[in-house]
Design goal:
The complex is a heterodimer.
Chain A (H helix, E strand, L loop, with lengths): L1 H15 L3 H34 L5 H10 L5 H12 L14 H25 L3 H9 L4 H11 L1 H17 L2 H7 L14 H10 L3 H26 L2
Helix pairs in contact in A: 1-11, 2-5, 2-8, 4-5, 4-9, 5-8, 5-9, 8-11, 10-11
Chain B lengths: L1 H23 L12 E8 H4 L3 H13 L1 E8 L1 H9 L5 E4 L2 H9 L3 E16 L12 H13 L7 E3 L5 H12 L4 H5 L6 E3 L4 H11 L2 E5 H7 L6 E4 L6 E9 L9 H12 L1 H8 L3 H4 L18 H5 L4
The chains are: A mainly alpha, B alpha/beta.
Chain lengths: 233, 310
């Protein structure tokens, strides 16, 4: 109990004094997870729309598969990307292992299924009457898609929020492909809030871990406020 | 409106991504004039958590205009990184697995740069009465009490194929037990944590159990736990740290220049002095011993201790 209170006080201190290590780690967390979320959105939303509106054999099974992948453990994704990017792996020549880019790739892959699936759910929530109205008004394929997406934008943005939440909070993939490196330059380090928390906990620095956890939640709060603002336009 | 905002954000992010990606992958043996080279080291959590490497890192980085990236994991995983050529240098403390690593051609130029001892720690009450016994006798006594139902006697193992875990298994073997049949799963007295040294010590503290720890991590945690050192003498407790470079014949794009520089840096006189005095201010005793002239005592050759890598 005492450690939790100590943690809250430590969190306040780290933020107010703009502790450089914590600032660097937080900035890295934000950059990596936001990038992953944006990339995943650019892939998942069109993909979700394509699957939802398309008619092809095995569509139900595909949607089932996507929903099953919601349960994909982060450490498995990490392991998969690790094997692909390792020097002896098929993409080893890119030398991306233990870099922030590898972490972005891993997080993108991780949140793709959930964002695709939630996009499909969002689109299926659009009132069928609206779809019929659009068709009867003679909308082109592009206009049709644009309007339906606009109708579903609230739920799609919720999917983005979920995607970001999953990306910034995961540890397994970040540690495996990033290596939790604290180097002298910003761009070469791969320590983010979650991996730092993991390290501090394993070293017994409980209040430090809690402090970092609070910082992470505050960041998530800020990002979600922005998303809510966009939702309410 | 939404699309445009998303697109703008995406463009900015992709730009940042490219910057991160490009600067993050500048490594390799091409020596540019003033370009900072990167050295990747895989090491074990026991060594890294003592903060010795963090202490030496800036000294090396300034001297050689380099950037040192340290990835720490259990010894097993660190060796895996070495076998896959994902790092330039491997620093571990498991003689047997190092020998195999060298024999299989994954590493070259092993140099010993420090040593210390493992310790058997446990509750002050010492229910198994092992204080000051030899390590083998202590382990036997703990197992004896544990398997005959003394509920106060528990042993927490690392259980994670780490260097410390290997040492623990070696002690069981020296005491005459078959690890997989006589120890593992032989009762609730023997618990496998599957985590790093710090977490294992915390767990042993919670359960007031015995565990084997390297002296460095134990001292770092001493203020936070009630476990005391019960057995700290015995040749088998010797813990020898070495560094080796990943074989450039197997992985030609390893940063061999910096790897050699780092290893030679570690065995240089100045750094050996630095290592020998590390931790005294904080813990009242050094965490490591420099080998100096004691190579015979720790069972290695003089060349491995003194000769710089060519």
């Amino acid at each position: 109990m005492y450690e939790i209170i100590e943690g809250i006080i430590e969190a306040a201190r780290l933020i107010v004094t703009l502790d450089p290590d914590v600032m660097a780690i937080s900035a890295r967390s934000i950059v990596i997870s936001l990038t992953a979320t944006v990339v995943a959105t650019l892939v998942a939303v069109p993909l979700g729309a394509a699957i939802y509106f398309g008619t092809f054999p095995g569509k139900k099974s595909l949607i089932n598969l996507i929903q099953t992948l919601y349960s994909l453990p982060t450490v498995i994704v990490g392991l998969l990307i690790f094997l692909l990017l390792s020097r002896v792996g098929p993409f080893g020549f890119f030398r991306l292992l233990f870099t922030p880019t590898a972490m972005i790739i891993a997080q993108t892959v991780l949140i793709l299924p959930i964002m695709t699936g939630l996009t499909i759910s969002a689109l299926s929530g659009v009132d069928p009457v609206i779809r019929d109205t659009l068709r009867s008004l003679g909308a082109t394929r592009f206009q049709f898609l644009k309007s339906v997406m606009k109708e579903a934008r609230f739920a799609i943005l919720a999917a983005v929020a979920v995607g970001f939440g999953r990306a910034i909070s995961e540890v397994g993939a970040a540690i495996l492909v990033g290596g939790n490196i604290m180097a002298s330059s910003f761009a070469s380090s791969t320590r983010v809030l979650t991996t730092a928390i993991s390290l501090e906990t394993s070293m017994g620095n409980i209040s430090q871990s809690i402090a970092l956890g609070i910082v992470l939640l505050l960041i998530a709060l800020a990002v979600n406020l922005v998303i809510t603002m966009i939702q309410n336009r | 409106m939404l699309r445009r905002t998303l697109f703008a954000v995406a463009a900015v992010m992709v730009a940042i991504l490219l910057i991160c990606g490009c600067t993050g992958t500048t490594s390799g043996p091409t020596p540019a004039d003033n370009e900072t080279q990167q050295l990747r080291i895989a090491t074990t959590t026991s060594l890294h958590d003592t903060k010795l490497l963090d202490h030496l890192k800036p000294i090396f980085e300034e001297q050689y205009n380099a950037e040192v990236l340290i990835i720490s994991a259990g010894t097993g995983k660190a060796i895996e990184y070495g076998e896959r050529g994902d790092v330039d240098v491997l620093m571990v403390h498991d003689r047997a697995r190092e020998d195999a690593f060298l024999a299989n051609g994954y590493g070259t130029d092993r140099r010993v740069f420090a040593y210390n001892y493992f310790v058997l720690v446990g509750p002050e009450s010492d229910p198994a009465g092992v204080a000051n016994m030899t390590p083998e006798a202590a382990f036997t006594a703990i197992r004896e009490k544990g398997t005959t139902g003394d509920a106060n006697v528990t042993f927490v193992s690392r259980g994670d194929a780490s260097g410390t875990h290997s040492k623990e298994q070696a002690i069981w073997k020296a005491a005459g037990f078959n690890y997989t049949t006589d120890v593992q799963g032989s009762g609730d007295w023997y618990q496998e944590a599957g985590t790093g040294m710090g977490a294992t010590l915390s767990m042993a503290n919670e359960k007031q159990a015995y565990t084997l720890s390297d002296i460095g991590t134990y001292l770092a945690y001493k203020g936070d736990i009630d476990l005391v050192t019960l057995v700290d003498e015995g040749d088998i407790l010797l813990n020898v740290y070495c560094a080796m470079q990943i074989n450039p014949e197997k992985y030609p794009d390893t940063n061999t220049t910096l790897a050699k520089d780092w290893i030679n840096f570690l065995i240089s006189d100045e750094v050996q002095n630095e290592i020998a005095s590390f931790g005294v201010d904080q813990y009242g005793q050094p965490l490591f011993y420099a080998v100096g002239d004691d190579w015979e005592k720790i069972g290695v050759t003089e060349a491995e201790v003194k000769d710089p890598v060519q």
